[in-house]
Structures are given as C-alpha cells and as structure tokens.
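Q&A log
Question type: sequence-to-structure
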Amino acid sequence: MSVAMVSMVLDCFPAGGSLRCLAVAIADAADDDGGSIYKSIATLAHQSVQSERTVQRTLPKLVAGGWLEVMSDASGGRGRATVYRIAPSWVMREVNKRATGH
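Response status: OK
Response body:
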C-alpha cells in the first residue's frame, strides 16, 4: 500500500467518476514508485465500488491512455494475475509538480 500514490491520484488524476475510483484502488495496491500492482479484478471491483465487468472494461482504457502499464501479462485465468505499474512518466511529472509547487 502506498499512501503517496493514493494521495497523488486523489490530488492529480485527470479524470473523475469510475476511472478515478479505479485509479485510487490501483494506487492503493502500488509500491511507492507506482509498481508491483497485482490485485485481482474482484478486489479492484470491490474497492472501487464497481462491477468486475466494469473493471475489466476500464483497465484497458487506463493502459491505452498511458496512465497504467502492463508489466507482465498472465493471459487471464483464475489465480494468474496481470502485473501493472502506474506510468513512471506520470509519477515523475506529478512528483516534480509537487516539488516545485506548480
């Protein structure tokens, strides 16, 4: 769990609604660099108060938008997690904004 990542998403994530709720759940699973995210669809759905199907449809949107990156793809299946990370470019941009006060 990364309080820093959750805080950054709450302060800076560029979208609202279901995308933002899912981003917060993802950030909660990240390490302090935004990596090592491997929560199940069921857990992400529960934490973001969405259906599993909605999470399955939304994750590719976060990847396509460049906010989330696939680190290893388990190609689906029970007990076979896909590992993600929050895009380092987004993390560094937000860290730099905080450091400079912009």
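Response note: The chain is about 55% helix and 10% strand.
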